[in-house]
Amino acid sequence: MSDEETVIVKDSNGTVLANGDAVQVIKDLKVKGTSVTLKRGTVIKNIRLTDDAEHVECNADKVKGLVLKACFLKKA
Questions:
Q1: What domains does the chain contain, in order, with CATH numbers?
Q2: Is pTM, for the whole model, over 0.70?
Q3: Would you give the DSSP letter of residue 64?
């Protein structure tokens, strides 16, 4: 990716996120396809940015390969 194509991902507070950041879930989220609910305050480490400014990839304790919307996250 060149500098012109770099996607800026911001959390719910407007803080810029980067690869490897730790984030916290700000709302209880039900994970589709499983019976797992990510509770508010859950810390998710080592996120990966995608090509979409609204989504980040991550692995939670119980669920691997999650894609979460950045509007439900805040930088920890």
A1: 3-75 (2.30.30.40)
A2: yes
A3: S
CA distance 1 to 48: 15
pLDDT in tens, the chain (76 residues): 555 568 899 999 999 999 999 999 999 999 999 999 999 999 999 999 999 999 999 999 889 999 999 999 999 9
Identity of the amino acid at 50:
T
3-state helix, strand, coil in the chain (%, to 5): 10, 35, 60
Q: Pick from 50, 49, 41, 45: which is nearest to 72 by CA? A: 41
